[in-house]
Amino acid sequence: MTKVHEDSPVLPTQQDEVSAAGSEFLGGPIGRHARLGGHWLGPVRVVALIAIGMFALGMVQKLPCYDWAWFRGAASQYTHACYSDIPHLYAVRGFADNLTPYFDRLPGDMEYLEYPVLTGLFMEIASWLTPGSGSMQHREQMYWMVNAGMLMACAAVIAVCVARTHRRRPWDALLFALAPAFALTATINWDLLAIALTAAGMLMWSRGRTVLFGVLIGLATAAKLYPVLLLGVLFVLCWRAGKWRAFGGAVLGAAGSWLLVNLPVMAGAWEGWTKFYTFSQERPIDFGSVWLLISQRSGNPLDGANTYATGLTLLLCGAIGLLTLTAPRRPRFAQLAFLVVAAFILANKVYSPQYVLWLIPLAALARPRWRDFLIWQATEVAYFFGIWFYLAYTSSGDKHQGLPTEGYQLAIAAHLLGTLYLCAVIVRDILMPERDLVRRDGADDPSGGVLDGAEDVFVLSDAARAPQYATPSEDRRVDWGTSAKD
């Protein structure tokens, strides 16, 4: 299989019409022979700085809540669309009282912290850095600010890792850095920790560091459950390519790091450790999910939603596995990673607004097309405001200030359909690999590590058995009147 070894970065303005149009206010697309970034300010640093800037804008958007709305009743923080779990959980999860997560029982119904161990450690470290003096309002403000600083570092790590994963496509990471949903949701919860570890793991896999990839994915799974799905992706890809040794190294690394983090808490506070898993199992259908939409429209409480969600997740993952083994060309790692995580979210009992953060870095690697990315982002931004205005409506008493139930249902449908749309165009790229923008210059799988350029040893269709060759293009600039049109 022919592979490209040129070092010059691919320029989005020469491959993507939306990117080129957006560059006009800066003077138009950059020339083919321009020197980029000088000696210091190269693409990776530019992307990281932009991501930090967008994160800071998201902090500014939370300013009304930081100043007063978090502390003056529920409706205000919803009408200003600046809600965050972080300041509220500082007191109600025992951090203000110096309780030890998982070991000390909490007052109230929750009993123990309902987050995975590594996220709990992140929350605890932030509480150590939070000043213990002053009013509770001041302490909650400082706790949010400390967490925001730590999460900003995670955002910078994600930007750098995404920019470096596809060696010749660092500018694709601008999709993450400039994503409006990233800025709006980054400080709602602690998801960026797991996302940063996942992004670092994918970077290591792209460099052939299979065990280190596993270690980072194990740590990410100790912070949030979804990263373990990437091992399932690699199982099917390595099955098709016969790369069982690489897969085994990844699994061993993941199991070892996950156990290293979890075993001390499992041994010393079993009941507290299991809280996350029992809470996830027993949690009823909640905001943003297809199950809530069905329940509200039908009036059926869907008591069996846990079974339905599990069954649908397995069905979708099975379909993705079949797609992997029958596609005419082995799908790229990032493409399948996006599809599997999206399937998990779409089938879940809850689709919280910050869950979009799980998908944004994967979308930048899976399909770096600004048009489709912005369509999807528009639906997620609509949902972001939709959920807060709906909560404002339900929490404002007889005033009913906000979005009624029917409007919220439209917002749910919009962000579900937006995610499905991006899944559909990625599936189309898999079935028609000549339309895959990442492969258009002759690359195979820049994020695939040992899979990049590997021959297939197991497939399930005649189309997949046909020899496939990556042909480097003579000119990376695309004729938008022909091949670049979707």
What's this model, at a glance?
This protein is mainly alpha-helical and 486 residues long.
Structural overview:
With 486 residues, this protein is mainly alpha-helical. It has one domain (12-16, 41-465). The protein is built from 21 helices and no strands. The protein has helices at residues 17-22, 43-61, 63-67, 74-79, 85-92, 117-129, 136-165, 174-177, 180-185, 191-206, 210-221, 229-241, 244-268, 270-282, 290-298, 305-326, 333-347, 356-366, 370-395, 405-431, 462-465. Mean pLDDT is 90; it is low at 1-6, 23-28 and 469-486.
Topology, please?
Layout: H1 17-22, H2 43-61, H3 63-67, H4 74-79, H5 85-92, H6 117-129, H7 136-165, H8 174-177, H9 180-185, H10 191-206, H11 210-221, H12 229-241, H13 244-268, H14 270-282, H15 290-298, H16 305-326, H17 333-347, H18 356-366, H19 370-395, H20 405-431, H21 462-465
Helix pairs in contact: 2-7, 5-7, 6-7, 7-10, 7-18, 10-11, 10-18, 11-13, 12-13, 12-17, 13-14, 15-20, 16-17, 17-18, 17-20, 19-20
Number of strands: 0
Biggest pleated sheet: none
Helix content: 55-70%
Query: Secondary-structure element sequence?
Result: HHHHHHHHHHHHHHHHHHHHH
Q: What key attributes describe this structure?
A:
GT87
